[in-house]
From TrEMBL:
One of its GO terms (cellular component) is nuclear speck. InterPro entries: Abitram (IPR039169), GCV_H/Fam206 (IPR033753), Single_hybrid_motif (IPR011053). GO terms for molecular function: actin filament binding; actin monomer binding. This is Protein Abitram. Belongs to the ABITRAM family. Keywords: Cell projection, Nucleus. One of its GO terms (biological process) is regulation of actin filament polymerization. It is found in: Cell projection, Dendrite; Cell projection, Growth cone; Cell projection, Lamellipodium; Nucleus speckle. It comes from the Eukaryota. Pfam families: GCV_H (PF01597).
Length: 182
């Protein structure tokens, strides 16, 4: 194989995310238009919570002012401690448990939710130090959190989520609705 063929093959190769994860979506979370979340589900049940490419934080050249994992006075996602093979001690999350709050420089604040039920394995502390990871690489280094659903629920967690095709259909409909005069 010559260099041109090799580069061509590398350019067409799927990313690690596309290769090993299934993308699921939650659209218009809590009734807020375009506040879309993406859940990357690995075959080992682990789910990575990220922002969908349509989320307002990733639009219009927004700049992140702060990211806060302190959900309430008594609850910080940074205090999550997991240990052992069975991941004991992780905070249990419901579908709409807040993971963090992100404030942009224009003072808009967004709450990012877990989207699925499960045990919080980790939050991404790297985005606290380098918030631009969230903007530049939301599906990889800029992820929000990692959640492990209960084994018996791992098949059913996707029932309330949208497939990539369903999500793209909603996004396309939004675009049509926005282009029509009111």
């Amino acid at each position: 194989m010559d260099c041109v063929e090799q580069k061509d093959t590398e350019a067409n190769a799927p990313s690690v995310v596309d290769r090993y994860y299934t993308r699921w979506y939650r659209a218009d979370l809590k009734g807020k238009t375009c506040e879309d979340h993406c859940i990357l589900q690995h075959s080992n049940r682990i789910c990575v919570i990220t922002l969908a490419h349509t989320h307002p934080i990733l639009q219009d050249g927004r700049i992140i002012k702060s990211i806060n994992y302190q959900i309430s006075n008594g609850c910080s996602r940074l205090n999550n401690k997991v240990s052992g093979k069975s991941k004991r001690g992780g905070q249990f999350l419901t579908d709409f448990a807040p993971l963090c709050r992100i404030t942009c420089t224009d003072e808009t604040e967004y709450t990012i939710y877990s989207c699925i039920r499960g045990r919080l394995l980790e939050v991404n502390e790297n985005i606290l130090e380098t918030p631009n990871l969230l903007l530049e690489k939301p599906s990889t280094e800029g992820y929000i959190a990692v959640i492990l659903p209960k084994f018996e629920e791992s098949k059913s967690i996707t029932e309330n989520l949208l497939s990539r095709e369903e999500f793209e259909s909603i996004v396309a409909k939004r675009t049509v609705d926005q282009s029509q005069p009111t």
